[in-house]
Amino acid sequence: MTSKSKIALIAVALAVLIVWAFVTVIPLYWMFIGSFQDSAASAVFKPQMIPEIWSIAPYERFFHKAAAVRWIVNSVIVASVVTVTNVFFASLAGYAFAKLKFPGSKTIFWALLTTMMIPAQVTLIPLYILMINIFQLGDTYTAIVLPAVVSVGNVFLMKQYMSTLPTSLIHAARIDACSEFGIYRKVILPMAKPGLAVLAIFTFVAQWNEFFWPLLVTKSSEMRTIQVGLASFVFAESTDYGAIMAGASVGALPMVILFFSLQRYFLQGITVGAVKG
Amino acid sequence: MRKSKWLVWSLVLALVFVTAACSKKDPAPSASGGTGTGGKDAPKTEQQGKPDTVKVWTYPVHAKYEDDLKDLIKDFNAKYPNIKVEYEMLSWAEGPKKFDVALNAGDPPDLYFHAVSGQYVSTGLALQLDQYLTPEIKGDYLPGTLDLAKIQGKQYGLPLYQFQWGWGGNKRILEEAGVDWKKIQQQGWTWSEFAEIAKKLTKKLPDGSMQYGLVTDGNGANNDFIQLVTRNSGLDDVVDKDGKFIWNDDRILDSLKFIDGLMKSGVMPKETAALAAQKRTDMFYAGQAAIISKAIPYYDVMIANRNKDIDAGKVKGEKIDYIQLPVPHNDKYPAKTTSGAEGYVAFKQKNDKGEEHAKNTFLVMEALSGAKAGNSANELCLPFVRQSQAKLFEGKGLAQPYNKAAAEAMAKSVAMPVDLTISADTSAKVKQYYEQVVKPGVQALFTGSKTPDQLADEFKSKGKQILGQ
């Protein structure tokens, strides 16, 4: 390839990436500037890229809601707990399915995978009856968290990731009389950090954005998560877009912090297996 | 140290989880927090003196509705301290889905804010109210309003307000075109009268942009526009009050030709099929839409607030005086206002709590629908449904007097929702027809890919298939 065509290729790639970055960033920027504008202005189709009138009134309206801070705290608690339990249980299960030989392991694994084919809508009502009517767990953190403690998708992800780890190290640890949980904690977990970081970020983001289940099982304003709480700014014939944008901006902060704190592992995690040799 | 970092974090968060999971929420949350009024001071629950709890699921009907609700519950509890009211404020977008799940699980709330529906009745869980309605309560409701919460003649709900859908105009543009909007508000207008006026309202503005006579959200998000038009062509709905399919004659063809004419003459923008509701509103604010569909009397207050924001320098743009307008009607048929009632609908649960609980549910329902509850109609600039409400809020109206008068005039020609008389099965089929046939059909009309004749034929044949007639 000549240097000219190389430059042209890089230029095209850069142009595509810039456009893609623009498309990705604009909604976030819109959200941010929308949080400093009045509701009508923030919902206009062609937003002002730099608002002519800046106002903190949307933030005042958002925090004026008695439970606004509590919504964020609830989201942090729920998303953190679900992330920790998923990382713990999915990595344990992934390790077992990838590295341990036990009777029926394949059957159990495939049985678990088939549950992924069942649409969430099918299990929604039985789950609701179980949590609310039978266990009487309505309006509790347990009700929000319990169905999400570990997902089959995450078990599958971990099983695939653990399969790429060297089995020889496990054998060596076993020869050194390390227990199975010891192997998991001292050998597997340190090696699986990038995979676990990816799992943690994906799980945290998914749980942070979860709307319908927390809406279903909570009833008091104090138990709502940020996503459910923001919906209370939608009225019968109007919507307070400014306050929603302000709440969304505040609510996005924990995710940004999480991403940047795990960025190093995240990049390793998503590129693992991309290069051979 | 680093090796154990993950484990330490896991343990800390697991501890949070366990603590959170074990600490069940307060048994009776305070009213300020969103639910309940019994609070922590509520009497200790003993077998005999145990307060009965009535669960209410509602919506932010207007911006201050939660405050209103707390007041109403406070008044109620002063009278009935042994009945605890737990309310939950749902979101308009997702609340119906939550209710749907609860209803299907056999555990709906005792009271739910919504219009009555045949589908609720078919579950067997809707609570019939006729036995609880005293002559005083019946007499307080204005004529016809209670009927809006009946299904096949039986009372299942109490209306809080009577909603109205119409069109909304920009006073400056209407007056510049010499339109006598006051006369239209009171006497209505025909399609041919509207077509003449709309031509005057459609023009190119000095900045090169277009000012359209009529703009609607035609992006297929709803069927509001076609319903407004057909209702004013002698068709109350796809089926009549007996469930018979009626979109099969010249009335539907006339309606489609009327819309097609507006598109072809340029009165409606050629991009209508892509316009979302917000864009329609933006065009109205920008003076690019003389009239918008659909519009409700509450827009008067909403636009007045925007005018205040413009005065305060918070918003840039032209101040607008809002004019509530009726939808024009087919020259051969009378005007009909699309309307219905929303309010509280009562339910029992699969695990029935008994007659005493049902009576208490009705007591709460009446308390949330009484004279003071009329503030919802007042805030939304809608006609009151009870005499006591009209009396209490007399002279306190928020809308411009001419728009209030227009809403009252529109209330005189209400098309009764057919949902109140048809079976749940037919109602479900009508919904299917709207989703699968009407929505894409009207979009095709807006884009010009189907002619009115083709579409009328399609409506007839598909109606036969789906509704079996």
From TrEMBL, chain A:
<keyword id="KW-1003">Cell membrane</keyword>
<feature type="transmembrane region" description="Helical">
    <location>
        <begin position="7"/>
        <end position="32"/>
    </location>
</feature>
<feature type="transmembrane region" description="Helical">
    <location>
        <begin position="71"/>
        <end position="97"/>
    </location>
</feature>
<dbReference type="Pfam" id="PF00528">
    <property type="entry name" value="BPD_transp_1"/>
</dbReference>
<keyword id="KW-0813">Transport</keyword>
<keyword id="KW-0812">Transmembrane</keyword>
<feature type="transmembrane region" description="Helical">
    <location>
        <begin position="109"/>
        <end position="135"/>
    </location>
</feature>
<keyword id="KW-1133">Transmembrane helix</keyword>
<comment type="similarity">
    <text>Belongs to the binding-protein-dependent transport system permease family.</text>
</comment>
<feature type="transmembrane region" description="Helical">
    <location>
        <begin position="241"/>
        <end position="262"/>
    </location>
</feature>
<feature type="transmembrane region" description="Helical">
    <location>
        <begin position="195"/>
        <end position="216"/>
    </location>
</feature>
<feature type="transmembrane region" description="Helical">
    <location>
        <begin position="141"/>
        <end position="158"/>
    </location>
</feature>
<protein>
    <submittedName>
        <fullName>Sugar ABC transporter permease</fullName>
    </submittedName>
</protein>
<keyword id="KW-0472">Membrane</keyword>
<feature type="domain" description="ABC transmembrane type-1">
    <location>
        <begin position="72"/>
        <end position="262"/>
    </location>
</feature>
<dbReference type="InterPro" id="IPR000515">
    <property type="entry name" value="MetI-like"/>
</dbReference>
<dbReference type="InterPro" id="IPR035906">
    <property type="entry name" value="MetI-like_sf"/>
</dbReference>
TrEMBL record, chain B:
<dbReference type="InterPro" id="IPR050490">
    <property type="entry name" value="Bact_solute-bd_prot1"/>
</dbReference>
<feature type="signal peptide">
    <location>
        <begin position="1"/>
        <end position="20"/>
    </location>
</feature>
<keyword id="KW-0732">Signal</keyword>
<feature type="compositionally biased region" description="Basic and acidic residues">
    <location>
        <begin position="41"/>
        <end position="51"/>
    </location>
</feature>
<keyword id="KW-1003">Cell membrane</keyword>
<protein>
    <submittedName>
        <fullName>Sugar ABC transporter substrate-binding protein</fullName>
    </submittedName>
</protein>
<dbReference type="Pfam" id="PF01547">
    <property type="entry name" value="SBP_bac_1"/>
</dbReference>
<keyword id="KW-0472">Membrane</keyword>
<keyword id="KW-0449">Lipoprotein</keyword>
<dbReference type="InterPro" id="IPR006059">
    <property type="entry name" value="SBP"/>
</dbReference>
<feature type="region of interest" description="Disordered">
    <location>
        <begin position="24"/>
        <end position="51"/>
    </location>
</feature>
<keyword id="KW-0564">Palmitate</keyword>
